[in-house]
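Field reference: sequence -> structure
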Amino acid sequence: MDDEVLVIGSGPGGLSTAAELGRRGVSATVLEKGDRPAAAWAGRYDALRFNTSRRNSHLPGAPFPREWGQFPTRDQYVDYLRQYAEAHRVRIRTGVEVDRLDPAGDRWRVTTSQGEATARHVVVATGLANRPVLPEWAHDPGFGGTVLHPDDYRNPAPFQGQDVVVVGAGSSGLELAHDLATGGAGRVSLSVRTPPNILFREVGGAPSDLPVPLFLHLPDRLVDAMLAALQRRVVGDLTAYGLPPAQEGAISGLKRRGAGTAIVDPEVIESIRDGLIVVVPAVTGLDADGVVLADGGRLRADAVLVATGYATGLDRLAGHLDVLDDRGMPWARSAQEALPGLRFVGYVYRPGLTGFVGRQARRVAREIAARGTAGPPARDGSRRPASQRPTSRDRAASPG
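Structure field:
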């Protein structure tokens, strides 16, 4: 299998990159480890909806249908990506997991579960949420119940009547706690280590993310203050329920660590005020019957749902190439070459990610088409010059 371009991952970044290349007459094949396009999205929980509105979140030239409403669901989005791939005649090979990338003269050698392939250009688009992350205590074999990550959760049906502790107060943690509490689970507790900023999907009937493109170009301190004031006015003070104000502003947290703000619907917060979800301190460990809390308390649990996020999982692919930072993120986050012939698309923290990676894909396709062929890749271990690594401004402007 030898191609001009190999694209790894069939999410929005991978599909749009291949589509944009095809428009320019460049042959590209997408490699997907799952059994279908957008397999990672298809495997998310049933109640998942976008946190950002359809107008900020679609791929360039492919708007979401208006009848879907402002915030597409998981199933709508998976169908959208499938139809996008079909409309643009994107060539996808499913069931192919990529294990490693290596320079090979003027090409790249791609080691996969189906053998080796080579290509002049490789575009990695496996996404920010590629590998579930669990804390060390979650692997304690002494716990008699079930420990799972949101990656393994679909709906509340298996948890009827059970006591469940949800760990993590991001968007997923809050939404899944609400899904469980209103879906027949017994006692639902939400374990919070760092209180988040909380914003509603809609404010006054309008999507709350509409001004985000402007916010990204304003001073962080100003945007943090504006969003904090909005939270006080719309969400209210939740200190009495165990959720005091966040210590870091919404936009500052997004830019620094890609987290810090939970985007939910009002009924999620009402379920906390109504006592359907009880906020408890951080979980520090497990015992035979449940969880151990940071204040020394213990809480019985049949199941612990650990919503502690994801990692990029890029270390196996490219860790030996010295193109990743200490968080496993590519140094080159603005879709420029990390090494000659190697690019990463979609590794940015920002709302409206689908629309943004679509624009990155267009830039990548334009540059590859203009170049025709790549020069020889740099040898293993060569790092991008410091002058070419992203600045804090690049990271800010460079998740929907």
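Note: DSSP finds twelve helices and 22 strands in the chain.
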